[in-house]
Amino acid sequence: MSSVIRKVALVGGSGRLGPYLLKALHSDPAFDVTVITRTNSTATFPEGTKLIKVADGYPDDEIVKAFKGQDAVILSLGYQGGQHHAALAEASKKAGVKRLITGWGGNVANQEAMEIFPIGKKVAEDIKALEAMESPEWSWTAICCGLFFDFCLEVGFFGIDALTKTATIWDDGEQKFSVTARPTIGLAVTKVLAHPKETANRRVYISSFQCSLNEILDGYKTITSSEGWNITKVTSEEMVANATENVKKGENVMYSIGRLGLATAVKPGLQADFAAEGILDNQMLGLETNESSHEIIAKVLKA
Ligand SMILES: NC(=O)c1ccc[n+]([C@@H]2O[C@H](COP(=O)([O-])OP(=O)(O)OC[C@H]3O[C@@H](n4cnc5c(N)ncnc54)[C@H](OP(=O)(O)O)[C@@H]3O)[C@@H](O)[C@H]2O)c1
């Protein structure tokens, strides 16, 4: 395959992650970006964004036509759009696209983590299907970025709340895990596209930094106040058991799935600290990050 990727299509350019991918791609003159959005979507995009509208459900004939002439396709689909992952991957190959980029989760290579977290399991299965599709003309990259640090803070995903001064700390709170802020994920995607050879047919591990629940709590305390916090201690074993049971019973499902997602980061032994595992690709990509957890916490609290 020619080593240059210039024309890039982004499916799911709105949503929680998409705008950050789009911003990074737009900021890099190396790329000519087209967003593929659904006809019935209410999403809006920055002025000047090249758009192709396709019918909801991404019908094959429309999507193959939309992908024609693109060097790379990026899929950033959420829970609902994720059902189209396999068909969109096949369509990219049919259209002559060289590289498909997907992923956006934790360490999908860790079997136990994927068994715990149903969404992670689906991502791991999607990646397995991509492995079976590899050809000299078509390849894939799965970005493993750990939790979206900024997003997780915004929605209280870590179980730490500055308003009520409450925090739930799993085990001793010291387990380190890799996290990435969404602007850095966007930047990393441009680096992946600039390194097609090194990133072909593999998981690419990135992070803004490694942190622990205790460090995040310290960040909140430093920025707000260290007094008056009410800390609940739980074990990862009990959290996983309870959340798994709730999902099975159909009780509190979204919250419980979220706890299982957090478990893939904070439960010991799940290889969620990419730096400690020696699998981090920041250096190979030339991805320089000088973010700090405290800075991002302060920014999110201010907003
Ligand atoms: N690691 C983490 O902490 C973390 C956190 C959140 C998400 N993620 C991952 O990031 C990726 C993107 O997730 P996201 O949360 O950004 O996705 P999202 O906001 O739910 O959806 C992204 C886009 O998918 C398109 N879409 C296609 N079919 C859809 C449907 N039936 N309903 C709604 N939207 C549909 C929409 O684009 P148009 O409207 O333009 O068509 C939508 O804006 C996923 O792989 C997700 O698992 C990871």
Automatic annotation (TrEMBL):
Signal peptide location: none
Pfam families referenced in this protein's UniProt entry, alphabetically: NAD_binding_10
InterPro entries, A to Z: NAD(P)-bd_dom, NAD(P)-bd_dom_sf, NmrA/Isoflavone_reductase-like, PCBER-like
Keywords: NADP, Oxidoreductase
UniProt key word Transcription regulation: no
Residue ranges the record marks as coiled coil: none
Keyword set includes Magnesium: no
Family: Belongs to the NmrA-type oxidoreductase family. Isoflavone reductase subfamily.
Protein name: NAD(P)-binding Rossmann-fold containing protein
Lineage of origin: Eukaryota, Fungi, Dikarya, Ascomycota, Pezizomycotina
